[in-house]
Amino acid sequence: MAKHTKSRLLGKRLVVGAALGTAPLAGGFADRALGDQPMIASPSVEVGERSLYQQVRASRDAGVAIRFLRAYPDSPLVPHVLLSLPAGELSRLPREVIDSLSIEALHGVPVQIQLQLGIPPQHARITRSTKGVSDGYSGGGTDRDITPKIVSASAPLSQQNTLLILRAVEESSDRCSGVPDIYKLDCLRSEFERIAQDLPKTGEYAPVQKTIARAARDLSRLVRSNRDTTKPRAVVQQSTTAPRQSSRGRSFRAVQEPKLQQTNAAARAIVDEASTRLLRSAGNSVKRRAHFQEVAQVLNSSKVLLRS
User: Fold this and answer.
1) CB-based burial of residue 250 (10 Å sphere; 0-12 exposed, 13-18 middle, 19+ buried)?
2) Are residues 237 and 296 in the same domain?
3) Domain extent for 113
4) Range from 1-10, 106-115, 146-155, 212-221 that averages highest in pLDDT
């Protein structure tokens, strides 16, 4: 039986081993950066997703990789797919495929490959604060997250810090309000993902980060299960006043229109669950509950996007 080791990637605990049954790559980025082949012990990785990933690893062909990346742009296997391709095959990936990949999925990709793909390393962004516009960075750690934070890990519970989070959620709803209905769910997923990336995983506001990150994952699974593959992705450019994912804009997946009412109802339930979970995380702290109550309320307000 192969021995398994633990590795950090995309902020999750992954089991790394030889369980997928494909031959290891010799001398490539995958060997140096990620060790053996990944086995994702998570219900969010579908059987078809894992099967197509195996084909990429076996063929090391851009055509197969393009099929995977188009089908699963936010998969935790995206870094492994990119790492498995030789330089010549990487250059064959179309710009629209690269642009569709989520921030979270790209966090495990080495800077060398990001540069080769024309991606700004670590998705440097400009963020606004109460003191004006800043391009400073914070973070670090094992997942190499150096994007700006809405609040830092050392930030205390305060009205000013909580207001920064409230504004981020409110602005996300504003940005998604102009997106066609069939794309709004994936837009909200993308915004929740971005906010979670900009919140600290430790400190007073860590429960907020954990709650929003989980909601983003749940929404992503919902979109994936109800995606309309006959519809093109909607490309939306960010406004100049909003926190930026990159200057390339973002693209969203469509959900099947006949299932829109059912899907939106499920999404509203996910947001409700997130709000309830956040309030429970406050425990017996009156101060924490007061701040988390405000965040929960603004999260609930985002459900207006999901009216059928």
Assistant:
1) buried
2) yes
3) 5-119
4) 212-221
